[in-house]
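Annotated sample (chain length 163).
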Amino acid sequence: MTAQAEKQDLTFVRVFDAPVAAVWKAWTDSESVKQWWGPDGFTAPFATMDVREGGTSHLCMSNPQFGDNYSLWRYQKVEPMSRIELVHNLADKDGNQIDPLSVGMPADFPADQPQSILFKSLGDNQTELTVIEYGWTAGQMMEMSRMGMEQCLEKMAVMLAKG
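Output written by the structure step:
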């Protein structure tokens, strides 16, 4: 099997009892993102969001055992209330992109990971959110990302339920 054939996409579909505008805000507003970014046991002490084509968001998730972990989201396409296409990278605290291997991540952690976030109104104040993470190598990091995103989306659902 070639390296390309081994790549897999992770797709998450979640229906929220909230209108598209609320789910969009959850994904794009700094204070909202800080409430759900990071898996269980992590907090998000900061998120600076610049959600526009060509913009970059800088986020931190923190845990006493694992310390601070920084990410960059670089936006390729933004269609308000409909679609966000971005590339996810690891970063340092100053917002500089870093190589995952340089911070001890396994070789199956992607350096540049394209993602799509799709927002679809289902009417009756319901929104279907689809998150696609492209190009994972099957293995431990892919499974950790699957678990982490599922936990993030659950935290988002709790936040949205509170209004």
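Annotation: The mean pLDDT is 93.
Annotation: The longest strand covers residues 67-79.
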